[in-house]
Amino acid sequence: MCGRYASTKDPALLAAEFDAVDGTGDEAPGPDYNIAPTKHVLAVVERKPAEDADEVERSLRVMRWGLVPHWAKDLSGAAKMINARAETVLTKPAYKQSAIKRRCILPAEGWYEWQPGEGRKQPYFMTLGDGASLAMAGIWSVWWKDDVPTVTCAVLTTDAIGAMTEVHHRMPLLLPRDRWSAWLDPASADPSELLVPDPSIVEALELRPVSTAVNSVKNNNPSLLDRVSLTEAEKPAPTLSELS
């Protein structure tokens, strides 16, 4: 799963990194080192800028994390729909139409996961560590009330592969740059070939142990991303320690 992540770059920098136009205006959230469900996040989409436009435009937009289908009665279920399983996203009624017509990329410096062990769980921050953003595959939807739209999104997840299996059994679907265009293409209604993880990205990840301060959503500062040393009592997996 992916229940917390970090996205701290300025929208203009993210737009440039993803070859997009910054369409966030004054709605962009500030740097967030501990993004939790239902917060507003940045997403990359491709749509026609106007109904009579001939070509699509890639842009950076603001969405609410936790997908709400257009037919939902209210927003109350959003926190339970922050993730969509890649294996079933094309068949589940709540996600199917979004997976076919409304796909997005959710940029992140990295995401957090908690490794089970004796006593407390140890949080890890998964990141490329070289300043480049991760491109998490996502889907989005629009929910209306009183003619006011709320744009919501979910992160796609897959079975963990490689070293990630030492931390958790699920992980976000990470898109390499050469898959961005195909994933975002609104004219493509069948993304099934893109719903498998790319081993090269996982191999490049740094699996960084971080402070348990991230456990509380009230904590939100750069120190959450800092590597911490594990004591022998806390060290849950020597093999992971060697990898990270």
Share of residues in helices = 10-25%
Superfamily at the CATH H level?
SOS response associated peptidase-like
Q: Strand content of the residues, in percent?
A: 25-35%
* Main beta sheet: 8 strands, mixed
Estimated structural class: alpha+beta
User: In total, how many domains does the architecture comprise?
Assistant: 1
- By CATH, the architecture is named Alpha-Beta Complex
Number of strands: 13
Distance between the termini: 20 Å
In the CATH hierarchy, the third-tier topology is known as hypothetical protein yedk fold
CATH class: Alpha Beta
Number of helices: 5
Order of helices and strands: EHEEEEEHEEEEEEHHEH
Please compute the radius of gyration using only Cα atoms: 18 Å
Protein name: Abasic site processing protein
Organism: Lentzea xinjiangensis
GO biological process, one term: protein-DNA covalent cross-linking repair
Family: Belongs to the SOS response-associated peptidase family.
Textual characterization of the structure:
- The protein is α+β, with helices and mostly antiparallel strands and 244 residues long.
- It has a single domain, classed as hypothetical protein yedk fold (Alpha-Beta Complex).
- 14% of the residues lie in helices and 32% in strands.
- The protein is built from 5 helices and 13 strands.
- Strands 2, 4, 5, 6, 7, 10, 11 and 12 form an 8-stranded mixed beta sheet that branches.
- A hairpin with a 2-residue loop joins strand 10 and strand 11.
- The two termini are 20 Å apart.
- This is Abasic site processing protein.
- Its EC number is 3.4.-.-.
- Keywords: Covalent protein-DNA linkage, DNA damage, DNA-binding, Hydrolase, Lyase, Protease.
- Belongs to the SOS response-associated peptidase family.
